[in-house]
Amino acid sequence: MTATEQKSSGSSVLANSAVMAAGTMFSRASGFIRSALLVAALGSGFHADVFNIANTVPNMLYILLAGGVFNAVLVPQLVKAQKNDADGGAAYTNRIITLAGLFLGVVTIVLVVGAPWLMRLYLGANWYEPENAAQLESAIDFARWCLPQVFFYGMFVLVGQVLNSRGSFGPMMWAPIANNIVAISTLVLYLVVFGPSSTGGYSPGEETLLGLGSTLGIVLQFLLLLPVLHRTGVRFRPRFDFRGAGLSHTGRLAVWTVLFVIVNQVAYTIVVRLAGNGSEAEGTGYTVYSNSFLVTQVPHSIITVSLATAILPLLSRYGAAGELPELGRTLSHQMRNALAIVIPIAALMPVLAEDIAHILFSYGAGADAFREYAPTLSVFAIGLVFFTIHYLLLRGFYSLEQNRTVFFIQCSVATTNIVAALLLTRAVSAEYTAPALAGAYSLSYLVGSVVSYVVLKRTLGDLDGRGLIRFLVRLVLVTLVAATAAWLLRTGLGLINDEPTMVLALIGAAIVGALYLGMLLLGAQAAQVKELTTMVQQVARRLSR
Q1: Measured by CB atoms within 10 angstroms of the end CB, which terminus of the chain is less buried, N or C?
Q2: Are residues 310 and 75 in contact, defined by beta-carbon separation less than 8 angstroms?
Q3: Do 316 and 79 contact (CB within 8 A), yes or no?
């Protein structure tokens, strides 16, 4: 590839990433409104966990059953089919969609029928005590309403990956906004009809409204992709001639990805059970854990996922052509682009953790519990950096079709998470269950990022380690100076008023954030951290259009 082509590819990745980042930002903003309303309606304790765990199970199961395959295996295979097949990959695409639809449809029916037995995997023994009978019944009812989401989650991601393989990245990032709008409307209606509550089980009417509203949002975000799929030239026709159609290679790759996901989901299932036990004991539980995770994952969703999605087809082409040095340089460059945003945000998160929780989760039934979020937010911020590194490095393995290697790396991550979660939650009171689980998460991805970097460097020969270290030294120094100034200002504001209203918390966070951003950008220019200034300019330019 010539220098001109390399520059063009890099610009294309950043441009596509900016499109997805803009869509994800709007999606996350609407998602925060949804989360705030959910806390206002249901609180942050055991009552909220009844719904939130049941509504999370479909996403966990979709990822377990198909998500890893769709996200990691299909794009390289679709790119190959478009390049090598005489029909531009049309038959391969139709077979994949047909097979996935059949599989997801059958599995979803089985899951709905088996909901009472399924929920035993995710609910600890304390949930089955007689005094929790109403909450248990509601959790199972919610599961029945929400489990059809497995089919629509799967089809949404599958169609989205088909679009990605054809260079259409934006729709998959924008469609979830429709889901959030449906969820927001559902929660507003819930508050109007039933009002806020943070104790007990749920009435049949409450279960129907919350469960049906959650599932309809997932249905809508899938349906919105179908017209876009048609416009990209895909004319879906069901095809059942699976034998001898080239799917066996995809299947062999998928085996390792399925094992990868199983290991990951086993770890997450244990985390959900431990978190549920925390809330049942009147401490912090799954709602605090998951909402804190949602907040800290915003930089990952906006920056890292956008970059990884845009770059995977390019990395797959390098891998297919055997251009390993170029693959390594490209991946290292995009890692720097992601970390240039993620590290500064992770450093600011502990400074503003209580203000963020106050702004997002201090309404209605959650008015008295928002401070419970601050420790978990702070600990998750540390893990965000390691997760970003690990996530991007795995794209390198996937582009080389080394899914077996990814599985063994993830075993180290999951094992660390499980052992650390069990030990840490036993060492603390129920009040600190969620921060302990966040600590286990952070530790597990520290292990994952180190292992994945060492193994991939051996595979590629080089990941521009020296350039990465020089970049990190400059960025960390600039970030530390800006974060110290922000912490001093936030401490000063706290001394002036240690019980601010939500409005004052918002104003204070804005002032601290503005100082931090200004010092960060000035420092980045002085230290020549071009990755940070370039990414900010790209996103700002896209948002201003």
Answers
A1: C
A2: no
A3: yes
Spatial distance between the Cα atoms of 261 and 67, rounded to a whole number of angstroms: 8
Nearest to 73 by CA among 330, 455, 407, 385: 407
Instruction: Report yes or no: 355 and 374 within 8 Å, Cβ to Cβ.
Output: no
CA distance 391 to 385: 10
What's the token pair of residue 121? 């995997």
Secondary element (H or E) of residue 425: helix 403-427
Count of CB atoms situated within 10 Å of the CB of 84: 12
Span of 31-35, 88-92, 526-530 with lowest mean pLDDT:
88-92
Q: How many C-alpha atoms does 93 have within 13 Å on its Cβ side?
A: 29
What angle in degrees, to the nearest 10, is found between the helix axes of 149-165 and 46-62?
50
Q: How many residues does the chain have?
A: 545
| Whether 70 contacts 158, CB under 8 Å | yes
Report the distance separating Cα 346 and Cα 297, nearest Å. Answer: 10
Quote the CA–CA distance of 537 and 265 in Å, as a whole number: 37
Rounded-to-integer distance, Cα 348 and Cα 163, Å: 35
Separation between Cα atoms, residue 175 and residue 30, nearest integer Å: 12
In contact, 466 and 328? CB cutoff 8 Å: no
One-letter amino acid identity for 486? Answer: A
pLDDT surpassing 90 at residue 322: no
| Confidence (pLDDT) at 64 | 67
